[in-house]
Fold this protein.
Amino acid sequence: MQKTSKRNKQSVVSWEEPTILPPDKRKRESQQNFVDVLPPEVSCKIFSKLDIQSLCSAAMTCKSWNHAIENSDNLWKNHCLIVRAVCQREIDCDRGNGYSWKITLLRNYWKSKVKQEWLNGKYSNIQSSSSLPETSMYPMDADTWGEILKAELER
């Protein structure tokens, strides 16, 4: 639509309709996620605020998130260092053998949970192996059982 000013017939004011995006393009633009838009360092900083379960869930959200999470070993480092408080020998051994932070965490996470429960005395009053809850047990090596038995004897 064009309007001509009454004062100056030479002057033309042009007015354009606002651009209306087709629905499919609007949908694509609204689905753009921060991993695709932000620099990788910023995306990693955001993901680093997640706990282990949330990080694993985020990795299953979409391909771009999965790629960003799976290819950033540092995202797993902080979680692995927390597990190291309980499983120092195991973590140090895995890292010494060249395992990534993520693989080291995956290899030791559940072990650290069960070991922590044992060290905290959760199973101190168990009378027989049949009294142990099967779902919360994890296979452990002789050195780990030695640490647990030492803690039991000190109680």
Notes: Residues 83 and 109 are 6 Å apart (CA to CA).
